[in-house]
Amino acid sequence: MALRCALEMLKDDAEGNECREIIVDRLHALNYHIRSYFWLDFRQLNDIYRYKTEEYSHTAVNKFNVNPESIPHWLLDFLPNHGGYFVGNVSPARMDFRWFCLGNCIAILSSLATHEQAMAILDLIEARWEELIGETPLKICYPAIEGHEWRIETGCDPKNTNWSYHNGGSWPGRSDGFCLPFLVNTHH
Hints:
Layout: H1 2-9, H2 14-37, E1 39-41, H3 42-49, H4 75-78, E2 84-91, E3 94-100, H5 101-109, H6 115-127, H7 129-132, E4 141-142, H8 147-154, H9 180-184
Antiparallel strand pairs: 1-2, 2-3, 3-4
Enzyme class: hydrolase
Organism: Trapa natans (Water chestnut)
GO biological process, one term: sucrose catabolic process
């Protein structure tokens, strides 16, 4: 969004046009990277299940060496047939498969998501309304990290206990003008 705003603020002169070209190139690369490597739907999940590991070349299909064994058991039940979302993080050998509301909403608002991806995100929210919205204003991520994984990921940080504010909890302040009005319209 900052790059798109910068495009609007640049002067129409030689220096501004040079910056504009750099920004457009950066936006193109960013869009490709986010849309290709962070997107998860059933088609992509099916591909991940078939990934070979230890591929290290420019022709590698599994660019981040994500191990198919790292796919969490809850994901198949959570991911609807016609839905999808951007995962929280992709790093070597590991993908954070949790769903993060704010990042996915920003991807829609900033046009990082294609129209089809935006509709798939909204389809997921509608299909999983009870888990993601339920009786609370809005959960920031799903599911919360619990047990042994919580100890490893957070270093036993008490402010990040399961279903607390930073670990799957409700963000009531986010319902007052950013995400919830835009999400409520998708729920029939």
